[in-house]
Structure formats: structure tokens, C-alpha cells
Design a protein that fits this description.
165 residues; alpha/beta; 4-stranded parallel sheet; 3-stranded antiparallel sheet; 6 helices; 21% strand
């Protein structure tokens, strides 16, 4: 392991409630998210803007506001990876993966659909979680600032599937 690499365990648990029907999985928390001890903490990540736009809400600023936005709309959040070796926030550097056990959520919430926020989350889901869980997950375009090819408007359009039904 180089000096920049670290083996890190996921620092916080999932967010879900008894009404959560849609599970959204990231890959692994960024440095900023790990510092805040909550999902999508980097100010340039567009996750909170996308979710707020989908439901016609103001963009949440505090963790309690973010939790309320997710739970009010029947969503759940977690990540595909429980621990890994990673350099900073780089998904490309992730290796030596241990997946999260999604039964923690699936045993207690009526999850109907699972979506992955970006290719890395989906790749990890398909490799480590799908074989044991047997439930498909759809891949949505990443809300990360690294996915600059996708405008906020394009992301909102693609992510609109989470509120359908």
C-alpha cells in the first residue's frame, strides 16, 4: 500500500425508514462525506440538487434536512462497499473490497427497486452483492463532479425514474 492509500471501513450506517421503497447506492463515501459522517458531503456533488429537483423541494443544507428529504419521499441511502483500500475519494483507486450487507435494509424496509449512483457502485453491486442477493439494480449516471459530461438538467431527467410508479 502506498502512503496515499488507506484501508477504510464505511464510517456510518444506512439511511432508511419503514416507508422506504427505493434504495440508492453510492460506491463509497468521499473524503468530504467521511468528514461530515453523511452521504454526498462534497459541495460539488449534485446528488442533493438532483433529488430536490425531482421532488420540487429546496436543496437541503443540513443533515437533518437531507434526512427528511430522503425519508419523506420513500427513499433509502447506502453504499455498495463496506470497506476497501482507497486513495482519497478516487473510485478508480478502489480495491480489496468488502461489500455492504444490504439485508440490514431489505429485511426492515419494503424496498421495491435498487439504483446505483454511477458505474463504480453498479460494478461493485454486480460483482459482490447481486450473486448472493439475487436482486437486480439499475445504474444511473453519477452525480459526482467527476461526471462533468452530464449537466444538472440531464441528471434530473435520467434520475426521474426513481420517482416513477
Amino acid at each position: 500500500m502506498s502512503s496515499a492509500e488507506q484501508r477504510i471501513s464505511h464510517p456510518f450506517g444506512p439511511l432508511f425508514g419503514p416507508e422506504s421503497r427505493v434504495l440508492i447506492l453510492g460506491s463509497f463515501p468521499s473524503v468530504k462525506s467521511r468528514e461530515q459522517n453523511f452521504f454526498y458531503g462534497h459541495p460539488q456533488n449534485r446528488f442533493w440538487k438532483v433529488i430536490a429537483a425531482l421532488f420540487g423541494q429546496d436543496v437541503p443544507l443540513t443533515i437533518p434536512e437531507k434526512k427528511e428529504l430522503i425519508l419523506t419521499h420513500g427513499l433509502a441511502l447506502w453504499d455498495s462497499i463496506a470497506s476497501c483500500v482507497i486513495t482519497g475519494s478516487s473510485d478508480a483507486s478502489i480495491r480489496e473490497v468488502r461489500p455492504n450487507d444490504l439485508r440490514i435494509i431489505l429485511d426492515d424496509a419494503p424496498i421495491e427497486r435498487i439504483y446505483c449512483n454511477g458505474r463504480k457502485s453498479h460494478e461493485m453491486y454486480e460483482k459482490y452483492i447481486l450473486p448472493s442477493l439475487g436482486r437486480e439494480a439499475a445504474c444511473l449516471p453519477s452525480t459526482s463532479p467527476a461526471n462533468a459530461a452530464w449537466s444538472l438538467e440531464k441528471l434530473v431527467a435520467a434520475w426521474s425514474v426513481i420517482r416513477e410508479e
